[in-house]
Predict the 3D structure of the following.
Amino acid sequence: MTDDTPLLDVDNLWVRFRTRSGVFDAVRGISFTLGRERLGIVGESGSGKSMTGRAVLRLIRPPGMIEADKLEIHGEDILSLPERQMRKLRGGRVSMVMQDPKFSLNPVMSVGHQLVESLRAHEPVSRSEARKRAIEVLDEVAIREPERVFDLYPHEVSGGMGQRIMIAMMLLPNPEILIADEPTSALDVSVQLQVLDIMDKLVRDRGMGLMFISHDLNLVAKFCDRIAIMYAGRIVEICKASELHNAKHPYTLGLLNSVPDLEHPRDRLEVLQRDPAWREAPSVSARQ
Amino acid sequence: MTAIDIRNLDVWFGVGAERAMAVKDVSFQVADGESFGLVGESGSGKSTILRAIAGLVPTWSGEMKVAGEALGARRSKAFYRKVQMVFQDPYASLHPRQTVDRVLSEAMGLHGVQDIDKRIGQLLDDVGLGAGFRFRYPHQLSGGQRQRVAIARSLACDPSILLLDEPTSALDVSVQAEILNLLTDLREEHKLTYVMVSHDLGVVGHLCERIGVMKEGRFVEVLAVDDMRRRKAKDPYTRHLLDSSINSVR
């Protein structure tokens, strides 16, 4: 395992849906790689950012179709992988944190039970060992009294705690890649940063690759190394997070300027003027 | 003149041992034409205050005076002509099987507005939609367009006070900017008074002049937005909120 093979290598990825009025392209030929870094993917609703995250795990069901010249996880082609092996990969080597903990935790199973189940699905460990590791990982995501929380049900924990439990669950089998799809947009601002800090620390400590999908450009800029900005299924701009202020694409600038900023009040917010040419411009490659 | 005058408001849910206080001893005034923001995390009671004003929560005590009218257990029809509410989720607040035309004409019919036909065209223009949207169903509209319809509905009876419950939190940032601009324009044109709930200090800071910061059902601080910008917040919780929302890159 040489370190210069990227964790994730995607070339010319398309996600298509057959509809009554012809084929709809949700993702239109994007290319990117993910190393041991934090890659942010930003765009509005309908820009194809979530579809990209799902396509990487082949989580798009028919009539949706995934096509790519290359879709490799650590050098292994996953487009041709049988479904059985895919299931091992999902949650094992690549895991995903979804938007709302209310919908991603099982409401009739205790938190601990779910953690143990997810670990034992990927590793042959004994119950007591799994319990021990589950409590350790709860502690890692800054949950106080992990033994008590282990026995709680999802409705007994707050949204921020639920999302930290989700992150704990996803980190248990030690994945190489974490895909976080709007992990904090269901949370309050005051809890958001806390959850992000925890995720950030874990990702860095473990040397994982993170794909961070969000509509909030400012948040992503603060939190990622590289940012890919998506529009209409294509990547319109890729830049280092530290150089976001030098971004050139009018869409990126529009997104940045449309956010009301507490420190720099303006009478009117800038409204995006969408240029049809953006849609037709070829996708920028985010391969490294 | 004060548009809204609230004194010692308590709101609770449940009875007996189950009784939970959602709002505790809250007092604030909003002047005519002012825009007042309520911020706090989920469960802090900010939306409950709006719902209590609108008459959607019957279990409250204290004094509420809105547009010169002291509120009791029931609201008069005249009250609803003066006070209207816009809800958070435009996907949930419009009837999926009614056209924009029907949504708006029903609201006007209830308030006995004359000349509905002409008013609808005017309302749609006001919210920047245009007559082409009149006979569309909600599923034919985007999130931002739906919120525009919801705002048009709240303006249908020409109210003087709008209660805004997180009107942009279900929308993309780019669409949020459009709706916030619209709200700014409408306020100027119609001389409206706003009470707006949001958990986003940036949004509240953009639209409001004064802000009440809530925690666990109480006001921890009421301060002017200008003071907040100059970091003059006194309460540690307000400072914490400020620190977590100042995340701009420029």
Summary: The CA atoms of residues 82 and 159 of chain B lie 4 Å apart. Chain B touches chain A through 33 residues (CB under 8 Å). The mean pLDDT of chain B is 88.
